[in-house]
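Quick review question:
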């Protein structure tokens, strides 16, 4: 993929800013390899997702703005998995709620090293 839809890289290596991004990447690759969809189908969906985001926000938001590549990646993956009947929209919403709760829990309840 080229342009804004290209995978983020630094010195030729894939770049993930947060752990969920690498999991979303791995899930998309694994689902494609398992036959849930063709990689080209995912790629075209991602390109369309990026174009839709740019149409709504403008390309000036990409550099230093609220652009997040893997949010578009995940949105494209979710849409494709629902379209293919791998998961339902309700399952996606429920799982996202669970993950947000886990993320909140991880941020608010951690050991500061002062235990007994």
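Suggested answer, residue by residue:
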């Amino acid at each position: 993929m080229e342009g804004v839809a290209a995978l983020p890289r630094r010195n030729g290596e894939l770049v993930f800013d947060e752990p969920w991004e690498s999991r979303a990447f791995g899930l998309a690759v694994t689902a494609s390899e398992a036959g849930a969809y063709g990689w080209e189908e995912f790629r075209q969906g991602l390109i369309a997702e990026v174009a839709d985001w740019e149409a709504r926000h403008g390309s000036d938001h990409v550099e230093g703005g609220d652009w997040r590549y893997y949010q578009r990646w995940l949105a494209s993956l979710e849409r494709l998995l629902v379209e293919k009947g791998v998961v339902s929209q309700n399952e996606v919403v429920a799982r996202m709620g669970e993950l947000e709760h886990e993320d909140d829990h991880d941020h608010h309840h951690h050991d500061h090293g002062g235990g007994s």
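Why it works: The chain has one domain: 3-108. The mean pLDDT is 80.
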